[in-house]
Amino acid sequence: TACAGTSVSFTVAGTGTGLSYQWQESTNGGVSYSNIANAAPYSGVTTATLTINPVTSAMSGYRYRCVLSGTCAPLGTANISNAAILTANALPTVTVTPTSGCGGVAGTNGLLLTASGASTYTWSPVGGLYTNANTTTPYTGGNTATVYAAPSAFTAYTVTGTAAGTGCSSTAVALVNYTPPAPNVTPSSVT
């Protein structure tokens, strides 16, 4: 099992003299298998470990097996490994609204950022993020779909959303501009 966009490896073990390996793939539930070539996303197709990088959601259900041969190879199908079935989980579609805006002023107000599309959310960087609208309680990490932004400089905030059940995650970005506080005007006396 793997998340789309990540890497997965399958390993086979065999005994014999002068072993060689050829990994095969079935895209039809194991009805037929074809040899795999060392080309993206596959590597190690003639070794004991096949690596697929990256895995795509479309590969879910594909089967992989290895044919071993050597100086004294087993007869019949004894030289073919059992098939491993790949489960490829889709990534959540994480969004953040708004995707850009002017931040608030710390201690006064903040720009509300709201994430959706996953089960849990973490934000980074944490500087300039708050958990309340009047921006007095700093966000220190942890799961929350909403934060208030009042950065002291232009900041690209990244939210990472993780799907329950699969553990797969993806990100979205909000670009927040610095908003200076209102100027403090002190009138001078007129003489």
Structure write-up:
The structure is a single chain. The protein has a four-stranded antiparallel sheet, with no helix packed on it. By secondary structure, the protein is mostly beta strands. The model has no long low-confidence stretch (mean pLDDT 93). It is built from no helices and 17 strands. The radius of gyration is 27 Å and the shape is rod-shaped.
Name the descriptors.
17 strands, four-stranded antiparallel sheet, mainly beta, rod-shaped, 191 residues, single chain
Can you lay out the helices and strands and say which pair or pack?
Layout: E1 2-3, E2 8-11, E3 20-26, E4 34-35, E5 42-43, E6 49-52, E7 63-69, E8 84-85, E9 88-89, E10 95-97, E11 100-102, E12 111-116, E13 120-124, E14 129-130, E15 146-149, E16 155-162, E17 169-177
Parallel strand pairs: 1-9, 11-17
Antiparallel strand pairs: 2-6, 3-4, 3-7, 5-6, 7-8, 10-12, 12-15, 13-16, 14-15, 16-17
Relative strand content: 35-45%
Helix count, DSSP H or I runs of 4 or more residues: 0
The level of helicity is: under 10%
Mean pLDDT: 93
Largest sheet: 4 strands, antiparallel
* Net shape: rod-shaped
Q: Would you count the extended β strands for me? A: 17
Alpha-beta classification:
mainly beta
Provide the low-confidence segments as ranges. Answer: none
| Helix and strand pattern | EEEEEEEEEEEEEEEEE
Across the major sheet, the strand order is: 4-3-7-8
